[in-house]
Design a protein that fits this description.
- By secondary structure, the protein is an all-alpha fold.
- The chain has two domains: 84 residues, RNA polymerase sigma factor, region 2, helix turn helix motif (Rna Polymerase Sigma Factor, Chain: A, Orthogonal Bundle), CATH 1.10.1740.10; 65 residues, Orthogonal Bundle (Arc Repressor Mutant, subunit A).
- The protein is built from eight helices and no strands.
- The termini are far apart.
- The relative contact order is 0.10.
């Protein structure tokens, strides 16, 4: 009976955690796929994976990093499975464009981030947009913390160079 009670407590803790950070998980998934519906699917798949393997998480204090890791891996899996290019007719493209409203405050930054290689972009997003520590990012990406620091530094240099190039245009 105690084992069942503990499992119910853990499940409730996981549900509360997911509810608390759902917007962060969505934002992270969307940074990979750039599509609202796909991001929702990724988060849903991530939740399902987390529910199935939560009892295997030994260090409950690493819950946030662990779940981010699931979202990152699920996003990458999704991108590998769904590599496709859609060609739109000009009329459809213009009708979509006419109704489109940009919600980004800095389009140049968004474009510059998109242009970065994935290994740098994901570290910058996790560090500065998700406010994760270097050690947490290393855990999520299964890399050495020093490698993460090096890639972060190089990614920021590339980002700065790209933004300066855009500014000069």
């Amino acid at each position: 009976m105690t084992k069942i009670w503990r499992k119910m407590q853990y499940d409730e803790q996981l549900v509360q955690f997911i509810q608390r950070y759902q917007n962060d998980f969505y934002r992270l998934a969307n940074s990979y796929c750039k599509n609202e519906q796909d991001a929702l699917d990724i988060v849903q798949d991530s939740i399902q994976k987390a529910m199935q393997s939560y009892d295997q998480l030994e260090e409950k204090e690493k819950l946030k990093s662990w779940f981010y890791k699931i979202v990152v891996h699920t996003s990458l899996d999704f991108l590998r499975k769904h590599k496709r290019v859609h060609v739109m007719e000009d009329e459809k493209l213009m009708s979509v464009y006419d109704h489109y409203e940009d919600h980004y405050e800095n389009i140049d930054l968004e474009k510059a981030l998109d242009d970065l290689p994935t290994q740098y972009r994901q570290i910058i997003i996790l560090r500065y947009f998700e406010d994760l520590k270097i050690d947490d990012i290393a855990f999520i990406l299964e890399e050495n913390a020093n490698t993460i620091k090096t890639r972060l530094y190089k990614g920021l240099k590339l980002l700065k160079a790209d933004l300066q190039t855009e500014e000069e245009k």
